[in-house]
Amino acid sequence: MDWPLNFISEEDLVKCMVVTIEKYGYDEVFTRERRKYFHKEIFRYVDNCKVSGEEKKANWDMVYWDKKGVVLPDGDVVHTVCVEIKNSYDTMTPSSIRKTYIRMQDQLLKDEDSACFLVEIAARKQQNIEWGIALNEKTLISHKRIRRVSLDCFYAITTGEEYAFRVMCMVLPGVIEKVVKGGGEIHIPHDTVLQQLEEIVASPGRKMDDMSMAIAIYMLGFDSYLGFEKLMENDGNEAGKECLDRIGSYEKRMG
To answer: In this structure, are 20 and 134 located in the same domain?
Structure first.
């Protein structure tokens, strides 16, 4: 089977998984607060993305440049996008929201040819929307180049592949299996995530197939993302609803 992703090779995706597991542990990779580190490792392999390291004074989680320009939904074109990655907007504190927004405002003042994205890994829905915040009870501010963007849309923008995120999710089970069975290359103390997934997703008397595993790990709240809705429809409506219910249960247990 040909490798379906153009922006990253199978070997490099394996490297991303290994690096993330070695840094944070296998169980931790799939918890809410750790997901972003795996995606940051992936974006190191995306052309024109500069990902911050572990330095505390890094301005952004990553910066993306595009010579041809990034077209925003309202038609504006910018050539630099500064990115802050969060699990979701709902997990941010009011103080964090204000500080992040003010930092983005400052960026736009310094560079009119830039935009700032708050990229949400587990956004409630697929989105690329103008972000506005309330400074107080009477003052609401927003800017068309300060945006909240779901992870699937950000992958599409940076890779040029509309369904890049969905396709990556579908190939990850094989990558995970390759890492787990990689012998002495990496130490995985106890893969309780796989154990929990088997309990939650697998039907009685049947082993969990790759599709269920992929959905369970990476469709935690992604059912409205690019390409996932059709995927669920192909699996049958009732089966899809049941799977999403089980995924919701898993999300609560992992949170």
So the answer is: yes
For residue range 151-189, list pLDDT tens digits in order. 999 999 999 999 998 888 878 777 877 776 664 455 555
CA distance 205 to 5: 34
Note whether 148 and 60 are same-domain residues: yes
What gap in Å lies between CA 163 and CA 229, rounded to an integer?
12
What is the spatial distance between Cα 42 and Cα 37, in angstroms, rounded to a whole number? Answer: 9
Domain boundaries, position 16: 10-159
Look-up: residue for tokens 């931790």?
Answer: 28
Structure tokens at 67: 């010579």
CB burial of 160-199 (b: ≥16 within 10 Å; e: otherwise) equals ebebbbbbbbbbbbbbbeebeeeeeeeeeeeeebbebbee
pTM of this prediction exceeds 0.85: no
134 bridge partner residues: 140
